TrEMBL record:
<dbReference type="GO" id="GO:0005886">
    <property type="term" value="C:plasma membrane"/>
</dbReference>
<dbReference type="InterPro" id="IPR003593">
    <property type="entry name" value="AAA+_ATPase"/>
</dbReference>
<dbReference type="InterPro" id="IPR050763">
    <property type="entry name" value="ABC_transporter_ATP-binding"/>
</dbReference>
<keyword id="KW-0067">ATP-binding</keyword>
<dbReference type="GO" id="GO:0016887">
    <property type="term" value="F:ATP hydrolysis activity"/>
</dbReference>
<dbReference type="InterPro" id="IPR017871">
    <property type="entry name" value="ABC_transporter-like_CS"/>
</dbReference>
<dbReference type="GO" id="GO:0046677">
    <property type="term" value="P:response to antibiotic"/>
</dbReference>
<dbReference type="InterPro" id="IPR003439">
    <property type="entry name" value="ABC_transporter-like_ATP-bd"/>
</dbReference>
<feature type="domain" description="ABC transporter">
    <location>
        <begin position="5"/>
        <end position="228"/>
    </location>
</feature>
<dbReference type="Pfam" id="PF00005">
    <property type="entry name" value="ABC_tran"/>
</dbReference>
<dbReference type="InterPro" id="IPR027417">
    <property type="entry name" value="P-loop_NTPase"/>
</dbReference>
<protein>
    <recommendedName>
        <fullName>ABC transporter domain-containing protein</fullName>
    </recommendedName>
</protein>
<keyword id="KW-0046">Antibiotic resistance</keyword>
<dbReference type="GO" id="GO:0005524">
    <property type="term" value="F:ATP binding"/>
</dbReference>
<keyword id="KW-0813">Transport</keyword>
<keyword id="KW-0547">Nucleotide-binding</keyword>
């Protein structure tokens, strides 16, 4: 089976901090992987490296066996980064039509609008949308090329309860169509319910990985305990551990 993502001992330091400290991670095609970690744990930096946006100091990232920038350019990867902007004055329809046209085999517009929940917003200018609506447009931008791999940094952060539920239903359908999904979240129950595998980062390294049950066991907690308890135990610093 092909691996959609390989991170091989990647490291990235900034003057004040080592953001990612020797991270190795392989995501096989078709898997849904959740990346958890406290603020500053290195999730966005790891995602930036796997998308080819941040150059690692050492180690390497491969997407489908290729250089990440090449895989992104070929439309194999759709990404939604945390601070991704959206152009303001165009309508949703104009924006998504333009983005679809840049890919060799884009997702049909109606499918895209339905999956990303932007149906009914097509004629609105992007600048007039609410934060959650804009987030759905950003999700549609990530999906436009019908990529095999979706990389989503906190995809549900601004979504209301209904939009969040519909987002996960859409992700399930995409996963059933064989897509590989890697998402970072602070909502632990989302990871527990929707990911095949969870990776917990702490200080740029993997603190635990596996299913929700594996993570609880690693923290020596009962199977019925909240994942949040395991998360806090595994990511607490120094004397707490
Ligand atoms: N461009 C940068 N310059 C300097 N330091 C940075 C830069 N980007 C990230 N860092 C630092 O690297 C560490 C990891 O940051 P990163 O954004 O990867 O964490 P995160 O897990 O995504 O956090 P959050 O949950 O808050 O989004 C933090 O200490 C952060 O301050």
């Amino acid at each position: 089976m092909t691996n959609a993502v390989v991170l091989d001992d990647v490291r990235k330091s900034y003057p004040d901090v080592t953001a990612v400290d020797g991270l190795s991670l392989t995501v096989p095609e078709g898997q849904t992987l959740a990346l958890l970690g406290a603020n500053g744990a290195g999730k966005s930096t790891a995602i930036g490296m796997l998308l080819g946006v941040i150059a690692p100091d050492s180690g390497r990232a491969l997407l489908y066996g290729r250089d990440p920038a090449q895989a992104v350019q070929a439309g194999m990867v759709g990404a939604m980064q945390q601070e991704g902007g959206t152009p303001g004055r165009v309508t949703v329809k104009e924006l998504l039509t333009f983005i679809r046209a840049t890919y060799p085999d884009p997702m049909p517009f109606a499918d895209l609008a339905a999956i990303a929940q932007v149906t009914g917003l097509e004629r609105k200018r992007v600048e007039s949308l609410s934060g959650g609506q804009r987030q759905r447009v950003r999700f549609a931008m990530a999906l436009a090329g019908d990529p095999g791999l979706l990389v989503l940094d906190e995809p549900t952060a601004a979504l209301d309860v209904r939009a969040r539920r519909e987002f996960w239903a859409a992700m399930r359908r995409l996963n059933e169509r064989g897509k590989t999904i890697l998402f970072a979240t602070h909502y632990l129950e989302e990871a527990d319910r929707h990911a095949d595998r969870i990776v917990v980062l702490a200080e740029g390294r993997i603190a635990a990985e596996g299913t929700g049950a594996d993570i609880r066991a690693r923290a020596e907690l009962a199977a019925a305990s909240p994942l949040e308890d395991a998360f806090l135990a595994l990511t607490s610093k120094g004397e707490d551990r």
